[in-house]
Specification:
617 residues, alpha/beta, ABC transporter transmembrane region fold, Rossmann fold, 3 domains, 6-stranded mixed beta sheet, 4-stranded antiparallel beta sheet, 10 strands, elongated
Length: 617
Amino acid sequence: MTQRSPSPSTSTSTNNASPAPDSAASRKGSLAALKGLMPFLRPYRRQFILAGIALLFAAGATLAIPAAFKQMIDLGFGASAGAQSIRHVDATFLALFGVAAVLGVATAARFYMVSWLGERVTADIRSAVYRHVVHQSPEFFETTQTGEVLSRLTTDTTLIQAVVGTSISLALRNTLLFTGGLVMLFVTSAKLTAIILALLVAVILPIVLFGRRVRKLSRDSQDRIADASALAGEILNAMPTVQAYTHEKIEAERFGTSVEGAFSAAMQRIRARSLLTMLAIVLVFGTIVFVLWLGAHAVLQGTMTGGDLGQFILYASIVAGSIGALAEVMGEAQRAAGATERLLELLAARSDIRNSAHPRALPLRSSNGAALALNDLTFAYPSRQDTAALDHVTLAIRPGETVAVVGPSGAGKTTLFQLLLRYYDPQSGSITLDGVDIRDLDLHTLRGAIGIVPQDTVIFSADAMENIRYGRPEASDEEVIAAAKLAAAHEFIERLPQGYRSFLGERGVRLSGGQRQRIAIARALLKNPPLLLLDEATSALDAESERLVQGALEAAMVGRTTVIIAHRLATVQRADRIVVMEDGRVVETGTHASLVAMKGIYANLAALQFHNVHVEH
């Protein structure tokens, strides 16, 4: 039976903010966080019911064993035993075997069902969290470390798997055994049961209070593990830089310190849980031993049969064992509660970049590309609100026009691309694509109409064919090869050991910088968008490769609108228009020749790059 996992929005509808570990909500009841798992559990009601039925049979069989022993003792060995004692013993042991068979089958069925539930729910949670994270805006990734997200997807979900797949079942099982055993204790001896209950109430209070400290330590331990994972992820992604600066020993020591911190936090948790377990066992079993001492005196006085005492001992053991198991489960549940809080915090994160409630469609595509307009655009990054990255920028780009954006570092060129892709929204002004405000477009519609070749090329751990096909997953092999030829990538791909099926290594480590760039260009060309964004698309190429790719790009620009960011002015001289930016503003616009003649910012930049250009100051 196929089940649908709940969407992230469902799972966090009531969890817009998770309480801090020391908040009043946490002090009142840490296990309340586990309620956030309910949307993931509801689709599997049938499996829970089947597990519950198996649980009832297993608990019933367990509770039947002491009663069978009572019959065996009283009828087989007690004062009333006679010639029929052998027959009673035989019947009792036959019944015990039947009970054991029921117990075995029911326990196996319960284990299978709850283990399936644990795996299934954990898989759903991981998928929901990952699906939610990949839809976040870049602002989210500015403040959240990748290693922390990975820790929550692995370590935290593993803790939840233990609770759903084991602890919930054990908690229900031991709750049933505790309740059933308690009832049978009253039936056997109300007086001794009343004494044992009064003493248990006195010993459970310190166990509960100590359990709250275990929960806080569990949350701290998970945080330290996440910190270590985040640090490892950051360093492993920057190994060439680490090795270039010979920081291997320093980074190993940093990670070792972080791991030791996680170990110390884990040991605090382990010590606390060990003390909790010891406290529970000593106090609970001490209480039971005392009451059983009273029962032994009752048998000697003749107010209780040997069978009654044996039955009472077994039921008391069941009750005591269930209390001990519940204390152990409580520790696991407290750890899972901390993990659940962390996952709910992640699921509660809401991107500021959202689809319009009533998204509009783009007009039918023109053969000349897309019309683009920036209308009095002002934007500051969330982390730098006091500094405008773009300041009242107005620019209109005609369909099919090629516009180059140049300027010194920090002028706002890359920010412009980020707003065009709607990674951020401007504080004021608007951007329109074919006359439609991009905030009124579905994000997939907007980004589907844009192809980009970024300055920092991303190569996935796959072969060359799949890396290029990332631009259009449904493209055929022939279309992929055609895009590679257009991007001057076909020749070097063919020379790879397995050609287009060659694995390119993690982050494309088997390719040169220029080869990675040509893969990215082929990917964008395969997408065939009406608007093409080139962010330093030829910056990593040697002179020969740049000549090949520049020619391919010029051919690719035909029939589409192209916006180019470039520091190397040789790549933009043939643009229809060059826009010069400085300090987030458009300060000059024109062709290469007209801008040089203006003797302004562009002319100064050109003078630095072209020795034959002379500018008067």
